[in-house]
Amino acid sequence: MSNSNPSANSAAPKMTWYGKTFNILLKVLMSFVGITMLSLGATLLRSSKILGLDPFTAVNIGMSNHLHMSLGLYQLLANLVIFVFVLFLDRHMIGIGTIMNMVLVGFEIQIFTQFYQQIFPEGINFFVIVANAFLGLILFTAGSSIYMAPNLGVAPYDAIAPIVSSRLHIKYKTARVIQDILFLIAAVLAGGPVGFASIIVAFFAGPLIAYWNKHISDPIVNGIDDFSEQPTVKHAASTISKATLSGYHYLTHAYNATLNVQMNLSGYTNQTTRN
């Protein structure tokens, strides 16, 4: 039933122009942080050919090696091709987050990889590989959640499944799995870094991203919206304090969730992913 009391509606706080400015800037910053996190996670997964990468990045690395191009440049070109199709099929999925993801991810992976190789010039042992698997998967899935949560647009690759789902009237989950499997096959044919982590990302990243959405990303977005209504220093300090404590608490749980996914892959059911 709708509320017909005009005074009740007028009591709702209205966001001022500077509040809206803060809201946009903070959400852009949130998307940037998320993109940087997923790039760092992809770098850790890329550190060993045993681990592999997510299907899309694996294809891009394989093709860029064949064409003797940098990963950043090739991934940007690949994103531009997909971007054109998304622009015609569903332009509502395009925003500043789309552009940021298209431009930044490939180049950030290149930069992080150079730093990583300077830190570990002699190669890595098994224990470092395992640590990279855990941290890489956490950062990749958490970063994906954080950059998408503000609804500023998604990467062209991430827009494929929703468009296919809508056009062919199939479930999004089915469309995404088919998409990732096809790109996984393409990565193998292109000689890209496919491994254990590639399988994990293709089939089990969804539940982890849903976990981050519920416990980290959505609360941050709500905090930004709440702060933007009353952008004061005191309010900002309170919001940051709550976010820090909440993030620390759920980071531990997210690590355990990641460990369970990797050690007990069959433990995830449809009911689990909805919780």
From TrEMBL:
Highest taxon, organism lineage? Bacteria
Q: What is this protein called?
A: Integral membrane protein
Q: Which residues cross the membrane?
A: 24-45, 66-88, 94-112, 124-148, 181-205
Q: Which Pfam families match?
A: DUF6198
**Keywords annotated in UniProt:** Membrane, Transmembrane, Transmembrane helix
